[in-house]
């Protein structure tokens, strides 16, 4: 088993082109593919896409992404293997995205451990900056999503996200309301976007409105925009439209798919105007 990809040659050796002309990756007996879920503004135009991984074994058995990117402690034998998979996923996401990017944003999931590791070895993020330039993707179109995993060293995570902001990336906190995505993390990291987990949406629809209202208030307090994810029906969409929400995401609005499929169905979305709140880093970060 290969544990750690750290050089361009190492990443390149994992890459292949599939039957659709899209980039895939082969790594440790897994086949990794990119799909993208659209994120909509309140006016229904497309802000951008969250890049998601789809994984299968070499015998074509699906592998659950939640298992692939489950929380693993640093001492675990698969820790660096997981970080390499996380980085490799971003490689194929960005290259596939570059063919259609236009003025859209791309939201990239990042494990907290991967973010901290990349900054502790600063050349890793320099590598990403260089690749973005080669691909013609402006850094301010890239939003790094810190996923909900707990992390022991919050100061290191804060330093990592601050460096990412200084490098021109946006920061989103994913799945707010579950696991490690709590108020403390929001106040420490001061994200550009707070992604509110579907569980808070479900609570809201069942009459427990306070968690959603508090989450939106917290976002506004730290000057973050609000994205509600997991919208699965018309009623949920209408309820969220009535609140102070900036962006919307969910199966009701758009399923994860290849970008070529999305743009074939929506040709007018090839060049919208992007507007992401990239506020200046707070002195407390």
UniProtKB/TrEMBL annotation:
Residues 15-270 form the EAL domain. It comes from Enterovibrio norvegicus FF-454. GO terms for molecular function: cyclic-guanylate-specific phosphodiesterase activity. Gene3D superfamilies: EAL domain. This is EAL domain-containing protein. InterPro entries: Cyclic-di-GMP_PDE-like, EAL_dom, EAL_sf.
């Amino acid at each position: 088993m290969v544990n750690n990809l750290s050089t361009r040659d190492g990443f390149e050796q994992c890459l292949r082109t599939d039957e659709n002309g899209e980039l895939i990756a082969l790594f440790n007996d897994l086949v990794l593919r990119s799909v993208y879920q659209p994120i909509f503004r309140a006016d229904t135009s497309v802000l951008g896409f969250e890049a998601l991984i789809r994984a299968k074994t070499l015998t074509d058995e699906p592998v659950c992404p939640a298992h692939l990117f489950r929380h693993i402690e640093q001492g675990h034998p698969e820790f660096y293997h997981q970080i390499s998979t996380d980085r490799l996923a971003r490689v194929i996401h960005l290259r596939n995205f570059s063919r259609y990017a236009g003025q859209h944003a791309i939201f990239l999931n990042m494990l907290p451990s991967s973010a901290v590791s990349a900054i502790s070895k600063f050349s890793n993020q320099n590598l990403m900056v260089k690749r973005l330039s080669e691909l013609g993707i402006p850094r301010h179109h890239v939003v790094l999503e810190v996923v909900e995993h707990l992390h022991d060293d919050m100061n290191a995570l804060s330093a990592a996200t601050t460096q990412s902001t200084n490098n021109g990336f946006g920061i989103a906190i994913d799945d707010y309301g579950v696991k490690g995505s709590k108020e403390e993390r929001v106040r420490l990291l001061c994200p550009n976007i707070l992604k509110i987990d579907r569980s808070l949406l479900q609570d809201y629809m069942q009459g427990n409105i306070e968690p959603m209202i508090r989450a939106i208030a917290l976002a506004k307090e730290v000057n973050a925009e609000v994205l509600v994810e997991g919208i699965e029906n018309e009623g949920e969409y209408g309820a969220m439209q009535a609140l102070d929400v900036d962006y919307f995401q969910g199966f009701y609005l758009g399923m994860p798919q290849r970008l070529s499929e999305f743009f074939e169905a929506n040709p007018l979305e090839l060049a919208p105007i992007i507007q992401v709140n990239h506020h200046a880093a707070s002195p407390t970060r």
